[in-house]
UniProtKB/TrEMBL annotation:
This is RRM domain-containing protein. Signal peptide: none annotated. It comes from Plectus sambesii. InterPro entries: Nucleotide-bd_a/b_plait_sf, RBD_domain_sf, RBM25, RBM25_RRM, RRM_dom. The keyword Zinc-finger does not apply. Residues 1-59 form the RRM domain. One of its GO terms (cellular component) is spliceosomal complex. The lineage of its organism: Eukaryota, Metazoa, Ecdysozoa, Nematoda, Chromadorea. GO terms for molecular function: mRNA binding. Keywords: RNA-binding. PANTHER family: RBM25 PROTEIN, RNA-BINDING PROTEIN 25. GO terms for biological process: regulation of alternative mRNA splicing, via spliceosome.
Length: 107
């Protein structure tokens, strides 16, 4: 599922003290757009009887917001007005989301 959002650099699923895998892990993508896509597409997605939780820490969130702000500035687009902690999202970023969602749903 993660690979459908972009190139995964690392994935670490957490093991408890008993050696049993826990229901969470950490993923690193090679590009900010992949991280943003995973946040948009996978957060709250149903997997069996559970909903996935996909989130970033504060530092990564700030890096993602800065990345999008810089891209928009280079493209001559106005800055997005975001509330505290909100991840950037616009029509350009989400135009191919359906394609990625179909690929994920085929898994």
């Amino acid at each position: 599922m993660l690979q459908e959002c972009g190139n995964v650099v690392s994935w670490k699923r957490i093991q408890g003290s008993s050696g049993k895998f826990q229901a969470f892990g950490f993923c690193e993508f090679d590009h900010p757009e992949s991280t943003l896509r995973a946040l948009r597409l996978l957060h709250d997605m149903r997997l069996g009887d559970k909903k996935l939780v996909v989130k970033v820490d504060e530092k990564t969130g700030e890096l993602l917001r800065s990345f999008v702000a810089k891209q928009r500035q280079q493209q001559g687009k106005p800055a997005l007005q975001l509330s505290a902690g909100e991840m950037p999202k616009d029509e350009e970023m989400t135009k191919n989301d359906e394609h990625y969602l179909r690929a994920i749903n085929l898994l």
